[in-house]
Every structure is written in C-alpha cells, then in structure tokens.
Amino acid sequence: MPSSHEPQKTHSTARAAVAALAAVAVLTGGTLVATDTLSSAPAVAADDPSQQKKRADQRAESLRGDIHETSAALQRSQAALNRTRAKLPAARAKVTSARSAETAAAKRHTEAMAREAAAAEKAAEAAAALKVAQANEQRARDDIASTNTKISDTRDRVAGFAAQMYQEQGLGQLSVAMSAESPDDLATRLAMADTVMEVQNSAIGDLATTRANLVAKQDNLKALRGESEVAKTNADTAERAAEDAQVAAQDALAQAGVARRDAESAQAVLRGIENSQRNQAARFDRQKKAEEASLAKTEAWSNRLQGILEARALRARLRAERIASEKAARRAEQAAALAAAKAGASSNSGSSGGGGATQSAPSGNGVISAPSNGVVTSEFGPRLHPILNFWRLHSGRDYSAGCGAPVYAAASGTIVSAGVAGGYGNQLVIDHGVKRGVGLATTYNHLSSFVRTSGRVQRGELIAREGTTGMSTGCHLHFETRENGVPVDPRKWL
Fold it and tell me: For the chain, which has fewer Cβ within 10 Å, the N-terminal or C-terminal residue?
C-alpha cells in the first residue's frame, strides 16, 4: 500500500504527470470515491453516467491503496468525525420533529383549556338557569299553597254566612218584613239583609275566581316543573361536558409535557453530537497538522537520501568512465600491437586472426527482478492524499504478501544503509552501480526485520521481511527504484 512518507513532486516527470491530472478523491465513512479527468482525454458526456462510473471506479481502484498513506491515528480521527457528521442530520431532524410535536401538543392543550373554560361557563349558565327554574317552581308552589289557603278561608266564610242565615231563620225579605216591629226597623233589617247578601255573593265570587286562578297556577307549576327538568338535564349535561373537557385538558397537558421532555432530550442529544463533532474536528485538525509535519520530515529524509545516492551515482559514473577510458586505451594498444603482428606474419601464414567477443548492453527488461512474490497493490505515479487533499508522488511500487513475507534483492549490489528512516519505517537501500549510464539504487521500506544489513548482496538473495513500520497501516513492501537518487517507475527496470 502507498505510504505517506513518499515525496511530493521530486522531479520534472512527476510534475508533468501531476499537471496532466485533475482529480477529486473523498474518503467518507471508510469508502473511497474518486473521479478524475485527464487533460488529453476526450470529454465524457454529462448524461453518460455509466462512463462516468467506469472512470470513477478505475480511478478509485488506482487510489485504493492510498488509504494506507495516512497514519492510523488520522484515519481513526476522520472515521470518528465522519460517523459523527453522519449522525447530525438525523439528530437535527429529530429535534425539529420533537419541537413540532411539542408545539402541536401545546396548541392542543391551549384548545383543550379553551374548551374546558367554555364548558365550565356553559355549566355555570345551566346551573344558574336551573336555580332560576327551581326558584320559579318554588314560588309557584308557594303561590298555589297561598291560593289553597285563601280558598279554604273563603269556603269557611261562606259556610259561616249560611249557618248564620239558618240560625237567624233566614235573611230573606219576607222573613225580615214579618219580623220587623216598625217601618224603621223594617228598613234597617232590609238594608242589613242586602249587605249580608252582597258580602256573601262577593265571597262566593272570590271563591270562584280563586279556584280559576288555582287551576291556572297549577298549569303554570306543571310548565315550570318541565322547565326545571329541562334545566336540570342541561345542567347535568353541561357539568359532564365540563368534566370531560377538564380531563381532555389534563391529557393534553400531559402530552405536552411528554413532547417537551422528548424535545429537550433530542436537543440534549444533538448538543452532545455537536460537541463531539467540534472535539473530533479539533482532534482531526491536530492529526492533520501532525500528518503534514510527518510528511515534511519524510520528504526531507527522501531528499537527503536522494543527495547521498546522487553523490554515489556521480562517483560510480566517474569511476565507470575512468575504467572505460582505461579499457579503451588498453584495447587500442592491443589492437595496434595485433595489427603490427598481423602485418609481420602475413607473408608467412597468410591467415587472419579473429577479434575477441564483446558483451552486449542490457536490453532494458530484467535489469532488476521483482523483490517480492506478493500482489502489486499500487503503482508508481502521482496520487491525491485521501484526507489531506494535496497531490504528491507515490514514488514506488507496492507489494502485499503479508507481514513476515520474504523480501529479495532486486539486483546485485552493495547495501548502503539499513535502519529506521522516518515515515519509511525500517528501510534498506542497495546501490547497484551504474546501469544504462545512470546510478541505479533500490529501496525496501516498512520492513518488519532485516536479514542483511551490510555488505554485498546477490540478485534474488533474501534480505528482509515485509512489515508495516513507519507511516503505514497495513503490511506491505514499498519498493523504489532511484536513478541518480531520483525515484522513477520500477517497471522500466523490471
């Protein structure tokens, strides 16, 4: 897998490759989604999602190993931040829903309180109407009782008149005339008799009127009793309605309380998530700064190694040129001597000698061999950091065969260094001398252990074990080839 220690843009080839690429890669929830556009590639139609997906999948596959370019701490920080961010929309929606439920419950409670007040007012009105009806009914009963008393008194008075008349042997005019002793007495008796009769007739008339009034009052009492019953029914109904409204208001109040507590709970959860997000974002920023600092240190280490290898390559090239010059001079001397010998012997033998065979230059394939039997998981080339979002060069080729898997020397050479090299972790560097006119070196990174740490090694010799040291989060071998110290694509030498 790619490691975060590789230098960014260390030579013109990498810069040109980076300039030719424009890509967006976003690591969300552990899933890498990437899209890229090559400046020389034909434009993809916006309405061709299948082609867009194909290109995105290809780019995602090429960048899949970049997940290992970051430290485990930064990956954990981003994963935690992504998980928290993913919770925020649902938490905010829950708060909104809870607040809406609280508002609706409060509205229902207000409406229930209004209905309760209206029902209570109606019950009060019905109770007042019942009291009025009952008072009217009671007055009607009292009036009837008074009328019955009056009728009884009138009957007694009429009966007393009748008894008196019988006792006095009648008050008729003939009886009065017969019993008169003188004309004055007759006149007096007649006047008295008329007065008595008038009183008697008046009492009888009052009795008849009172009886008629009694019937009317009894009818009125009957009507008032009906009104009282209706008023009582209305009062009972209104009272029950008021009680029901009160219960409904209490239920609405309880529901409003539950809704308020739910809203407060949802708000508290949201505040917790937001606080967690702020803390995780701050932690993530700190991890990013640490990651950037580590990358800077690793690049500095790579640059120092490049300088060392450049110096070694220059010395090796000068030595090779000197040796080649000396060999050429020797060959020239040998050729001159051979020519002179041939000229002196041509008259005797007439034969010609054959020249010595010369060794051919390397073909360019197979100068080095694969350093591992593992699967190639990432190639050389520019990469977009999946979290820090800047381009840099993935300066080697990654092989994955599992921790402890054997690592072999890609070609014969001399071990330059073996030890901890910053973000590279355990690193072994082999100088292979001048090949194709350049100083060729290979580096083996993230090793778990060394088998060889110095001296001369042969091609295919076991030199180390695969690991995940340094800026790496998965067991793999990061293999580099460097020309005069500058990282190049290993495939041109394999």
Answer: C
